[in-house]
Design a protein that fits this description.
The complex is a heterodimer of chains A (338) and B (127). Chain A is α+β, with helices and mostly antiparallel strands and 338 residues long. Among the domains of chain A are: 70-166, T-fold; 210-337, ApbE-like domains (T-fold, Roll). Chain A has nine helices and 17 strands. Chain A has a nine-stranded mixed sheet, with helices on one face. In chain A, a hairpin with a 3-residue loop joins β14 and β15. Chain A is globular and about 55 Å long. The termini of chain A are far apart. Chain B is α+β, with helices and mostly antiparallel strands. Chain B folds into two domains: 1-32; 40-117, N-utilization substance G protein NusG, insert domain (mini-chromosome maintenance (MCM) complex, domain 2). Chain B contains two helices and eight strands; from the N terminus they run αβββββαβββ. Chain B has helices at 2-31, 90-93, and strands spanning 40-46, 49-55, 60-64, 70-75, 78-84, 103-106, 111-117, 124-126. In chain B, the strands form two sheets. Chain B has a four-stranded antiparallel sheet. In chain B, strands 3-4-5 form a three-stranded antiparallel sheet. The longest helix of chain B has 30 residues, at 2-31. The chains are: A alpha+beta (338), B alpha+beta (127). The interface between A and B is large, with 50 and 38 residues. β8 (211-216) of chain A pairs parallel with β8 of chain B.
């Protein structure tokens, strides 16, 4: 009988220890900070002190002040108001302008940061979006051409009056890169940085597992997803026709433009999501692939070894590259083509 | 006499066993569920500061003032922006949040509504 009692007491201890084992360790509590900048919200979830998060917030607000097209006193605002005079911009704007112009050239102008006059005309993300007349579009297109924007050191200059540029397409990724650099320098090894719908996953989760990230369902609400992918130490970003758009007569006009025609992109794709090491490059690639459409986009990915996920309007999903190798479809409305 | 003695032992053993089991159960219950495991909260932040954390299992209504006025409603295990006088009402259109990690945002008013706690299916949603 004493043996039974001893066994039961032992069992008690085992239960107690087993239960303790399920308790999260004390140092895994994450802190979250949110700032509103770059026309979106930026959330940092890190296993660090509040001071670090505050620094990230300041960094983001600071970059917004330098790179925003809609702020008249930002470097880009001043450049756009300079006509053909040219302006001296700060290091961040100079770095990003020169990186962006590299992407414009690489894409053969399919990605073009000087599309701004056309974007402004359509005003897709503004208060009064409209479909302009073909003549208006043709006029605005005369002011588009990345080759006529030069950056020499910190001197940026347009060749023609009426030109303007918008770094909105890649500024979020650039800001994410900068924030991750800051977090690393502060000794943070695990963090989730969400800039609007793009996310930088720094390191892995404190328990050593990868982050599980859902890929947004373009036809569902902001919290529905088509499937999931495991990510460590990478940046994930999407371009699509579902977040910023307006509709006239049942036709959808999205915020990404065909730089050849001056009309919003309208092809077989709903969205493209890419996973990269670099935020600015990720933003560029997702935009470019979305513009290219499925067939050319897939070819481009194979050519350059890009990890991407394409969602077509007829609800087929195509994945390419090692980072999407273990993509898991969770929404039965979609078909994953392998 | 012998059987009586044996019966007494059994009774005492039974009490000890029962006590041990109770103790085991108490220890187990105390540690394992940790009171809050699985309980979800709606965390409301304004300009990055958490201003309210409301349990999702208790129906409630929370009004956030600022440049605009948002009403956050907790109902039937979900949290959502039930009304807002902001320009596009994107926050209201986001719909109901029920799982950890889900997020609704009112950009014009600087307000985020996030579900925290419990076990989420995903850590975040991209795109």
């Amino acid at each position: 009988m004493k043996k039974i009692i001893a066994a039961l007491l032992a069992l008690t201890l085992i239960f107690a220890f087993a239960a303790c084992g399920n308790e999260p360790a004390a140092d895994t509590s994450a802190r979250t900070a949110t700032v509103f900048a770059m026309d979106t919200f930026i959330t940092v979830t890190a296993y660090s002190g509040d001071e670090t998060l505050e620094k990230v917030g300041k960094l983001m607000t600071g970059l917004d002040g330098k790179l925003s097209r809609t702020k008249a006193d930002s470097d880009i605002g001043r450049l756009n108001a300079s006509g053909t005079e040219g302006v001296t911009v700060g290091d961040d704007a100079a770095t990003l302008l020169s990186e962006a112009l590299g992407y414009c050239a690489e894409s053969g102008g399919i990605f073009d940061i000087t599309i701004a006059p056309v974007t402004e005309l359509w005003n897709v993300t503004g208060d009064s979006p409209r479909v302009p007349s073909p003549a208006e579009i043709a006029d605005a297109m005369l002011c588009v051409g990345y080759k006529y924007l030069t950056i020499d050191g910190n001197e940026a200059k347009f060749a023609y009056e009426g030109m303007s540029c918008d770094l909105g397409g890649i500024a979020k990724g650039y800001a994410a890169d900068k924030a991750v650099d800051l977090l690393k320098s502060e000794g943070v090894t695990s963090a989730m940085l969400q800039v609007g719908s793009s996310i930088y996953l720094l390191g892995e989760k404190p328990d050593g597992s990868a982050y599980n990230v859902g890929i947004r369902d373009p036809e569902g609400d902001a919290n529905s997803y088509v499937g999931t992918v495991k990510i460590k130490d990478k940046y994930i970003t999407s371009s699509g026709d579902y977040e910023r758009y307006f509709e006239v007569g049942g036709k959808r006009y999205c915020h990404i433009f065909d730089t050849a025609s001056g009309y919003p992109i309208d092809n077989d794709l709903h969205s493209v999501t890419v996973i990269t090491d670099n935020g600015a490059k990720g933003d560029y690639l997702s935009t470019l692939l979305f513009c290219l459409g499925l067939e050319n986009g897939l070819r481009k990915c194979e050519e350059y070894g890009v990890s991407a996920l394409f969602i077509t309007k007829d609800k087929h999903i195509y994945t390419t590259g090692s980072d999407f190798a273990e993509f898991e479809l969770t929404n039965g409305d979609y078909v994953h083509e392998k | 006499m012998k059987s009586k003695l044996s019966l007494q032992f059994k009774k005492r053993d039974f009490i000890i066993i029962a006590a041990a089991l109770l103790l085991a159960a108490a220890v187990f219950l105390f540690f394992l569920p940790k009171g809050e495991t699985g309980r979800l909260y709606a965390e409301i932040s304004k300009n990055g500061e958490v201003i309210a954390s409301l349990p999702l299992d208790t129906d409630a209504e929370y009004v956030v003032n600022g440049d605009y006025e948002n009403v956050v409603t907790i109902s039937d295990g979900s949290a959502f922006f039930s009304s807002s006088n902001c320009p596009n009402e994107d926050c209201v259109h986001t719909g109901k949040l029920t799982k950890a990690g889900q997020l609704a945002v009112c950009l014009p008013n600087g307000v985020t509504l996030r579900i925290v706690g419990g076990e989420g299916d995903v850590d975040a949603i991209a795109g």
